[in-house]
Amino acid sequence: MLSAQLCREGAGAPTIHRVVNLSQTGACIARPRDLRSGDRVEIAIGQAEPVVAQVVRIDGDQAGLRFEQPIDLDAARQRRSSDFVPRIGAGWLAERQRVFR
Predict the structure, then answer these.
(1) Residue pair 42/22 in contact by the 8 Å Cβ criterion
(2) Which residues, listed in sequence order, are joined to residue 23 by a DSSP beta bridge?
(3) What is the pLDDT, as a whole number, of residue 91?
(4) Smaller CB count within 10 Å for the chain: N or C?
(5) d(Cα 101, Cα 86) in Å, to the nearest integer?
(6) pLDDT tens profile 32-63
(7) What is the 3-state secondary structure (H, E, C) of 41-93?
(8) Is 9 left (phi over 0), alpha (psi -120 to 50) or beta?
(9) pTM of the predicted model, to two decimals?
(10) Contacts of 17 (CB under 8 A, 6+ apart)
(11) How far apart are CA 22 and CA 12, in angstroms?
């Protein structure tokens, strides 16, 4: 079972979600918690580099995400070590957070 860390702009700590389906260009996650279609998020799955994604659909207890860049599926299927520290504010979120400081 794969899990994903999702960082949303202005949402504080990342949330963890079960990955229902995964491809190089997108994913389906469970329990999207207040996500709306059109939202941009940063997602990290396994050992793959975090990528920015757009929520393209919400269907009950699942959300479909489209990645802005393809991810490495082999890396995404490898578990992160237990000492993994989330990269909160990586990528586009870091730029946005600097604006508010």
Answers:
(1) no
(2) none
(3) 52
(4) C
(5) 21
(6) 888 999 999 999 999 999 999 999 999 999 99
(7) EEEEECCCCCEEEEEEEEECCEEEEEECCCCCHHHHCCCCCCCCCCCCCCCHH
(8) beta
(9) 0.76
(10) 3, 4, 6, 29, 30, 31, 32
(11) 25
Tell me the pLDDT tens digit for each residue of 64-77: 999 999 999 999 99
Amino acid at 83: D
* Other beta carbons less than 10 A from residue 72's beta carbon: 14
With vertex at residue 71, the alpha carbon angle to CA 68 and CA 73, rounded to the nearest 5 degrees, is 150
Beta bridge partners of 101: none
d(CA 35, CA 88): 18
| Residues making up the chain, counted from first to last | 101
Sign of the four-CA dihedral 76, 93, 67, 70: negative
d(CA 20, CA 11): 23
